[in-house]
Amino acid sequence: MAEVTLTINGLQVTVPKGTTVLDAARQAGLFIPTFCHDPELTRFGACRMCVVEIPGMRNLPASCVTEATEGMVVHTDSPAVIEARKTILELMLANHPMDCLTCGKNGDCRLQDYAYMYGVKTEPFGGEKHNYPLEDDNPFIVRDMNKCILCGKCVRACAEIQGKSIVDFAYRGFDAKITPAMDVPLSESECVFCGNCVAVCPVGALQEKGLRSAARTWEVQKVKTTCPYCGTGCNFELNVKDNQVVGVTSCDGDVNGRALCVKGRFGYGFIHHPDRLTTPLIKKNGEFVEATWDEAITLVAQKLGDIKDKYGPDALAVLSSARCTNEENYLMQKFTRAVLGTNSIDHCARL
Amino acid sequence: MTNSIGEIAGADFILAIGTNTTESHPVISLQAKKAQRNGATLVVADPRRTEMAELANTHLQLKSGSDIALLNAMANVIISEELWNKEFVANRTEDFESLKETVAKYTPEYAEQITGIPADTIKTVARGYAKANNATILYTMGVTQHICGTHNVFAVANLAMLCGHIGKENSGVNPLRGQNNVQGACDMGALPNVYTGYQAVTVDDNRTKFSKAWNVAELPAQPGLTVGEMMEGAADGKVKGMYIMGENPVLSDPDADHVVHALEKLEFLVVQDIFLTETAALADVVLPAASFAEKDGTFSNTERRVQRVRKAIDPVGNARADWEIICNIATAMGYPMQYASASNIFDEIASLTPSYAGISYARLELGGIQWPCPDADHPGTPYLHKDKFVRGLGKFNPVEYIPPAELPDQDYPLVLSTGRRHFHYHTGTMTQRTGALEVHYGAEHLEINPADAAALNVAEGDTVLMKSRRGQVEVTARITDVVPRGMVFTSFHFPEVAINKLTNPARDPVAKIPELKVCAVKVITVS
Amino acid sequence: MSYVSLTINGVMVTVPKGTTVLNAAREAGVFIPTFCHDPNIPRFGACRICVVEIPGMRNLPASCVTEATEGMEVYTESPAVVEARKTILELLLANHPQDCLTCEKNGDCRLQDYAFRYSVKEAGFKGESKDYPLDDTNPYIIRDANKCILCGRCVRTCNAIPDRSVIDFGYRGFNTKIVTAMDTPLGESDCVYCGRCVTVCPVGALAWKPLAGKGRTWEMARQDVTCTFCDSGCVFEVLSKDGKNVGVIPKASGNGRPLCLKGRLGLELKYLDDPPPPYLKKDGEFAQVSWAEALGLEDILAKLDNKG
């Protein structure tokens, strides 16, 4: 493969031909801020946050769409670059609600990160502001188009990851907005609420309804695990606050990358549902009565033992579970064969 | 699956048969969409015009249960037009002649009569499949939940071997498994005839190995009962006691009324679950189990990838992890079963299971591993049958079309098929309690074709009574041409529409899978 | 000791006589928000965010200054209580800058916590806003009186050191403000920058200047260290971001003793990956110099180097 060597902030970097300046810089461990860039999505070059200075070029080019060439000299944080980034942030903030106070993405927001990093505290540009109503009529996703910075990641994620193209850019200029066809709410569109747009949104425009109203981003611990629904085996992170699962977020899954479906991302509510069984129950006179573990285990052991003694092991049968772990299925067949003494164990693979 | 999920995107021809992938396996469907964006041809065989069918380059809207006729006709075209992979068939397979003989009568024209798919379409699809560099077949319960389910799978395998579309990257036969750990439950020997890793209980050496490892004098040699046989045994009084962990056969099994009757006849039933399911309600003892978020363990997904499940929170209330409960009961029955952690159990599994031997929790920290993984240095196996099949040569198992066990007639003129919805899962015990999914999709309906609706004088939103020879349910009608004329469809997610009261428990004689995809019903408007 | 039993949200709780309702609730694991309350300094009852409903009492009393009595019934999240808290938050926010975006306390701010908890998204009341200049004339503490909610914790903790009492409430009504004597900047007062006030401030009114711009609260890993400069044993926290120690802040004073600036600066030198450089006055101007030069050790180091 052909390679090119360029200089970034005085460092020599050699990368394969075709590599963008952004990727070259990141490989060299240099930071460049981005909003619209995503390694999994097509290059877009819309937000201009990643501009760098390359002597000889007419303007400050967007590093995410500029390919590295032999001998190129790049400055990622020259005064001109910083000035440009500050102006971009000021312009974005001129039309962005200042409500980090209660925003669900506070603490996990690129606009906030970069505003802090570049010391952009207020918007010097007054002017008209969007005042779109909040869209929260579905139980999964809250859309606040006032917070949208039009990076287009959701549009590309919907088209390129989910293959649905539910949302796209609509209107022009100041009125430009991400909408489903005919600017209806998501609930009236063909959206299947996979939430993959939410997973890529760099700001607070798209938020998980349950998670972002239950906890601040810095309050949660994330535990990587495997989805309990279908056989695909998507990985995701359970978000935990105070020993409660408050939501699910994407991580880099072996099978799924960041993609999830509506059940995986939004189907965690059963964990803390009041219908959960929390204590052993023993049926007495046709009614369930709460029991201790000792009582229940003793009774089960005794009854199974009695039937085995009286009728032989093959009068017992066990249904194991395609929902439980390997370890549990292993122990269940071990129990059935070694303790009960029968091979009558099955599960619902056939359904 | 013979291949990995990611390899679907690398196929240039995908035949998806009996799989409503976008709804039942949404994230796998993304790979099919990706392949299509890269120029692959997608052919979907399904009686319903699902979203997947809408995406397809060709939708084969075959009659329910006519899969073998379609697949054999494709083989017929491929053989008669000399499109088969002669090198692969010669080197890797046997009994080609018997296949050739059997499919000879399945001309596209003959298959057209059975399947309802035009002969020319069958020819085009067969040519496309045979000529593709990398062709993959995806299927799910639409293929297996028939009395000829095993034969359907044979027909699929025959086609793949005929064209050499197996044993290489991006090409294979890929059943998409419906439950998170159905693969793992099978791998772990939660089956009546095998121990872990499909080591048969009938083989003396296997019994010796396990009895030694488990420290018992003897292990039973006779294969045990399957689910359906257990229910029949219970009804007959031969099975007296059952222990059910994390399953809800009252809603998931066919002929639900019969299942309830059978379970009620037991002397003792213990059910271990996270909710008081319809099945648990019948139990003598109910044991509260921990959910996946409350325990450590592993799941094996449909592509044989073993992945970690990690404990995120403590069990709710006094619930315990299923593995701990099993240990408690075994110990109380005089068989001391104690493990410090799930990881220790896994080590025992690895020591007894050649295909899992190289997997450990330490390795899984770095990512999932696809079995077979025979030793600690083995990277795992993304696709199977690379240089040879497990049995050596791939055997063609020619199969004949047989019609479903129960076809519509004068009294029950419609075909009922059942399946899944995007927003729900299985018997709904989890998805009906999320505070989100059931809010969005809160009630089930019956899909009915406009022509049938008009004939029956059913309007959109009407409550109808649907009856089969086994039972009946009331359900709201949705008039849609997603279903063809003569067919109705609904899911088994909603207890209030307990559709398995109607379905036919007639089973495939080999795999014992019930024919949930076809039974005869009638629909009556309720005023 | 005599005990009293009361019910809080229907749960029976028994506490020693003299215990406040707030402490009784907290012992029972019941959450009550507070701004002005601090277990280590005298009771104040100013902010009213801790109000609870006690049937029979005239108003909603502040739980931090109400003692539990036998048979008392307390409701900590009744509709009336929630309504009152929301109104308090709305009133506070009506005169509070909405700049969490870059505020150093974002993520560790009680006003923000409670606004999120009670879903108070907007001020609700419009009116005059304070517009005080930022007091950042000293190298240690940034004071932003616009963000002050007048909880008085800084005043009370400063007054707890008898010879300090550098700050107190000044002016009246809307103009009330925490001030030094004569309302000078902190840099011109008797303040010795022990930082007790910063450690107790529940909002963004007082912030550590050396930490400004160094990272967000949620990005910081914290490690407790005990100061060894004297025998008081004050506890400090070393803050690190991305594996790099970026700041030292006081956590709690030693028993009966104040915190001090000396301790913190010493610990900064000891723990920080990039400690602030020393300055030496040369020709009447401060110039940044090396530690060797500042400590007058250049000659000795040179000799050591030559030997090596």
From TrEMBL, chain A:
GO MF term list: 2 iron, 2 sulfur cluster binding; 4 iron, 4 sulfur cluster binding; metal ion binding; NADH dehydrogenase activity
SUPFAM superfamilies reported for this sequence: 2Fe-2S ferredoxin-like, 4Fe-4S ferredoxins, Formate dehydrogenase/DMSO reductase, domains 1-3
Cross-referenced InterPro entries: 2Fe-2S_ferredoxin-like_sf, 2Fe-2S_ferredoxin-type, 4Fe4S_Fe-S-bd, 4Fe4S_Fe_S_CS, Mopterin_OxRdtase, Mopterin_OxRdtase_4Fe-4S_dom, MopterinOxRdtase_cofactor_BS, NADH_UbQ_OxRdtase_ferredoxin
Keyword Iron applies: yes
Pfam hit, one: Fer2_4
4Fe-4S Mo/W bis-MGD-type domain location: 220-275
Keyword Manganese: no
4Fe-4S ferredoxin-type domain segment(s): 139-169, 182-211
PROSITE patterns, sorted: 2FE2S_FER_2 (PS51085), 4FE4S_FER_1 (PS00198), 4FE4S_FER_2 (PS51379), 4FE4S_HC3 (PS51839), 4FE4S_MOW_BIS_MGD (PS51669), MOLYBDOPTERIN_PROK_1 (PS00551)
Domain 4Fe-4S His(Cys)3-ligated-type, first and last residues per copy: 80-119
One Gene Ontology cellular component annotation held by this UniProt entry: membrane
Record-annotated 2Fe-2S ferredoxin-type domain positions: 2-80
SMART domains hit by this protein: Molybdop_Fe4S4, NADH-G_4Fe-4S_3
Keywords attached to this entry: 2Fe-2S, 4Fe-4S, Iron, Iron-sulfur, Metal-binding, Oxidoreductase, Repeat
Biological processes, Gene Ontology terms: respiratory electron transport chain
Name of the molecule in the record: NADH-quinone oxidoreductase subunit G
Organism per entry: Desulfoscipio geothermicus DSM 3669
Lineage: Bacteria, Bacillati, Bacillota, Clostridia, Eubacteriales
From TrEMBL, chain B:
One term under GO cellular component: membrane
Record domain Molybdopterin oxidoreductase: where: 1-331
A biological process from GO: respiratory electron transport chain
The Molybdopterin dinucleotide-binding domain, residue ranges: 414-520
Alphabetized UniProt keyword annotations: Iron, Iron-sulfur, Metal-binding, Oxidoreductase
Any GO MF annotation of the entry: molybdopterin cofactor binding
PANTHER family in UniProt: FORMATE DEHYDROGENASE H, RESPIRATORY NITRATE REDUCTASE
Protein name: Formate dehydrogenase major subunit
Organism encoding this protein: Desulfoscipio geothermicus DSM 3669
From TrEMBL, chain C:
Residue span, 2Fe-2S ferredoxin-type domain: 2-80
Domain 4Fe-4S His(Cys)3-ligated-type: 80-119
Main function: Ferredoxins are iron-sulfur proteins that transfer electrons in a wide variety of metabolic reactions.
Source organism of this protein record: Desulfoscipio geothermicus DSM 3669
Pfam families named among the record's database cross-references: Fer2_4 (PF13510), Fer4_7 (PF12838), Molybdop_Fe4S4 (PF04879), NADH-G_4Fe-4S_3 (PF10588)
Protein family per UniProt: Belongs to the complex I 75 kDa subunit family.
This protein's name: Ferredoxin
Sample GO molecular function, one term: 4 iron, 4 sulfur cluster binding
Lineage summary: Bacteria, Bacillati, Bacillota, Clostridia, Eubacteriales
Keywords associated with the record: 2Fe-2S, 4Fe-4S, Iron, Iron-sulfur, Membrane, Metal-binding, NAD, Repeat, Translocase
Keyword field contains Oxidoreductase: no
Keyword Oxidoreductase in record: no
Reported cofactor(s): [2Fe-2S] cluster; [4Fe-4S] cluster
Gene3D superfamilies for the chain: 3.10.20.740, 3.30.200.210, 3.30.70.20
